[in-house]
Amino acid sequence: MGHSVRIFAGASAALAPFRQIDPAVLFYTLTPASDLAVLPFDDDLQDRLHARFGTGDWPENQSIRLSTTDQSFATDCSSAAPLAYIETDYFGGEGTQSAMLWQASQVLIGPITLDNAQRAQRQPALWPINVVLRTLGVRARPPMDEFATFGLANFRSNDDVHARAWPLRT
User: Fold this and answer.
1) pLDDT given at position 109
2) For labelling, which of 32, 41, 75, 158 has a CA lying 20 to 30 Å from the CA of 99?
3) What distance lies between CA 58 and its chain's CA centroid?
4) Residue 56 contacts by C-beta under 8 Å, 6 or more apart in sequence?
5) Residue 154 CA to chain centroid, in angstroms?
6) Rounded Cα–Cα distance for residues 95 and 114 (Å)
7) What is the mean pLDDT of the chain?
8) Is residue 126 left, alpha or beta, with left meaning phi > 0 and alpha meaning psi from -120 to 50?
9) Closest-CA residue to 132 (of 78, 86, 90, 89)
10) Please, is 92 exposed, middle or buried when counting C-beta atoms within 10 Å of its C-beta (0-12, 13-18, 19+)?
11) Domain residue spans of the chain
């Protein structure tokens, strides 16, 4: 079974500028009591962002699927509140996870990527997504890590988020 998500996460104020790109965009929470919202960042939304602001460059030395335009837009969004980008690409237990975090219009963390070889040698508390979520204020509830506590373990794709997450009324 796979896990492939591309989401932005943070307070609604940090996600609100995405409504400039698509006024109908929906924000969700992955657990009913979460204080943090998520926005699935699918190819269509990314294409609309690029149509409005240009594509920018695709840095060769990073494995996340964000162009320089995407990162610049996220930087601007973070002026209101911290904003995280989370990406997974796993199938059959093999793959990668990546994350970035912006705060106060600056890159605070990342982009950082972890593959299976690195994952085997690093404690889960130091995996990119857990680090970014902890910085956003997610506290692991043992035996779960931040990834599971936040609810990401229950959503294997952006389509899952759209279909089963809790829409946030903003």
Assistant:
1) 97
2) 32
3) 18
4) 50, 67, 68, 69, 70, 71, 72
5) 15
6) 9
7) 94
8) alpha
9) 86
10) exposed
11) 2-165
DSSP string, the chain: -EEB-EEEEE-HHHHTTHHHH-TT---EESSTT-S-EEEE--HHHHHHHHHHH------TT--SS--HHHHHHHHHHTTTS-EEEEEEEEETTEEEEEEEEEETTEEEEEEEEEEHHHHHHS-GGGSHHHHHHHHHT----TTS-HHHHHTGGG--BHHHHHHHSEE---
C-alpha triplet 85, 87, 93: angle, nearest 5°: 155
Q: Which residues pair with 102 in a beta bridge?
A: 83, 107
| Cis before 82? omega within 30 | no
Tokens representing residue 59 in the block: 């840095």
Alpha-carbon dihedral 160, 164, 9, 149, rounded to 10 degrees: -100
Is 159's pLDDT higher than 80?
A: yes
Hey, what are 29's tokens? 């929470």
Give the alpha-carbon dihedral of 146, 125, 15, 42, to 10 degrees: -90
Q: Does residue 70 surpass a pLDDT of 90? A: yes
16 CB-near residues (< 8 Å, 6+ apart):
77, 80, 170
